[in-house]
């Protein structure tokens, strides 16, 4: 899964960078998603591979906090990128005449920078809050990597502040992003259904299929994992482990495949490169 994820996203980045005809907002957002997926895979890779290849199951607290920060930061950034991609599809379908004037390269760069800064800023307090806790229970995590919900459960201190902060950040980042994505799709559907031509309607919806799949792949296991972790200790342990792997390993694996298959111009460029 790691090999396919890294190769797939690297191919997407190479094709977009090498082909000037793909230097458009839609593909720039796609390359940003590929970079984020690569970073997310690399964040979980050290501890996961150390368990499966070397049977090393120990990690220091500081290393765990650092991994936790990067995992949650890149999750937040990916959520923001998916929101930007929804905005891109919304403008392309609902206001196509202003598409080029709204999504200019400088504006896209600024939006990308805001996404990165937001992800890093809101997750930066988490490691420092966790460092204040006293850990006296069995320090065994549910996953092969460190995430906030998992680490909090092995602390013997009062975790209410960290729990409230984590929930607030989730609602104000992934929660708000998913709501805005939903609203953008409502507006897209409203516009598409007003198109009289059946062929044009299907063509417009087809441009959203890849992004819709990426949204489902990202948010569904994340919401499920959050719910399972809040059910209490010992609740659905197997489901907790499966959702943990799906939420961090499957999106970077599937996203490049979905976009390569469903995006006609990108698929054609990839085939051309490999045929040559």
From TrEMBL:
Localization (cell): Cell membrane; Membrane
Residues annotated as transmembrane: 26-45, 108-130, 178-196, 208-229, 241-261
Keywords: Cell membrane, G-protein coupled receptor, Membrane, Olfaction, Receptor, Sensory transduction, Transducer, Transmembrane, Transmembrane helix
CDD domains xref list: 7tmA_OR51-like
Main location: membrane
Domain of life, source organism: Eukaryota
MF terms (GO), sorted A to Z: G protein-coupled receptor activity; olfactory receptor activity
The keyword Transport is assigned to this record: no
UniProt membrane topology term: Multi-pass membrane protein
Residue stretches making up the G-protein coupled receptors family 1 profile domain: 8-259
GO CC annotations on file: plasma membrane
Gene Ontology biological process terms from the UniProt entry: cellular response to lipid
Family statement drawn from the similarity comment of this UniProt entry: Belongs to the G-protein coupled receptor 1 family.
Protein name: Olfactory receptor
High-level lineage: Eukaryota, Metazoa, Chordata, Craniata, Vertebrata
